[in-house]
Amino acid sequence: MGKINKEMVVNDCIKLFPKTIGVFTQFHIDSCCGGAVPIEDAARRDGAPLDALLAALETAASK
User: How confident is the model at residue 1 (pLDDT cuts 50, 70, 90)?
Assistant: First the structure.
């Protein structure tokens, strides 16, 4: 497991790893008004595949 997990809050992820903002945008995750929830909840709410989202976030965070 990397630095990011499904329980991490979207806004916290963006604060810790600013490069992930583009990933949330790519997956149509509302990281502005809807960023105060865990990544798993945001993915479910916005219809994003959780595994693909987490993998993309890890890649972006490691750059």
Answer: very low
Domain chopping of the chain, boundaries: 10-61
Token readout for 27 is: 């997956």
**Model confidence over 9-45: pLDDT tens digits?**
999 999 999 999 999 999 999 888 889 999 999 999 9
**Token digits of residue 16:** 């810790």
Q: Classify the C-alpha dihedral 31-50-14-24 as positive or negative.
A: negative
User: How far apart, in whole angstroms, are the C-alpha atoms of residue 7 and residue 1?
Assistant: 13
